[in-house]
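Help! Submission page says 'invalid entity' but I think these are all valid:
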Amino acid sequence: MIRYYWEDFTPGWSYESGAAPMSAADIRRFAQEYDPQSYHTDETAAKATPFGGLIASGWHTCAVAMRLMCDGYLLDSSCVGSPGLEELRWLAPVRPDDALRLRATVLEQTPSRTHRGRGTVKFRWDVLNQNDAVVCRMIGRQHYLRRIPAP
Amino acid sequence: MIRYYWEDFTPGWSYESGAAPMSAADIRRFAQEYDPQSYHTDETAAKATPFGGLIASGWHTCAVAMRLMCDGYLLDSSCVGSPGLEELRWLAPVRPDDALRLRATVLEQTPSRTHRGRGTVKFRWDVLNQNDAVVCRMIGRQHYLRRIPAP
């Protein structure tokens, strides 16, 4: 059932997902519930903003990246949560019919100081569009159970 | 229509929202779409995890915080987007029937170096539960139009 434990995420380990399409309807639906700024909800109003058209909420981009991570490796892992991110950058707008993919790269792998059965992994997660532009970058940590507890 | 421009977000400006309830159904619905780890989607499976029960996806907490921000001041502002966060911490689990509120505090106010009509505001955003525990903390920036362009 569990394929990836803490030990597997050695520095340089990487994963790249397939592409998730973002439709205008998806963008509006997320935004109407969580981020109803006009450039996320209304294509006509969005044209008059500096963005020149509808763009996805940054939180929608993060949520889609999370789903790509889950389907890619997280649901097959021993992950037991995340303390957070030390960087989250929205680098370029996500527009209707963009297709997003996730690239995960391990930066550091640290045993827990307090739990023999756990460790932490620091990742860079880049979200790319169909033109290979990085639209979102996250640097953060996740906690994982170890396959074999530390001695 | 616009009540808050860049000039209004002086250091120390703060806002605290009312409370948004998080139901178990809300938690599961968000997670099924964006973060289907078992401790976010399945109350029975969640009991066997280190969390001891269902908890909200951290991205759900961020999305709810964004909605509280929108309703509190952002939709009445000249906000033209965010470059991102320099810190995002998930500090405590969010559980069913928690009620979350947002506390926003301005840390810095910086005129744009390139746009006379814009500026940037650095905020701390704390998400609190009904026991006043900070469950999530974000430090980041938003860009706003100025009421009066710089000379």
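Support: the input was valid. A stray whitespace character was the problem, and the output above is from the cleaned input. DSSP finds four helices and six strands in chain A.
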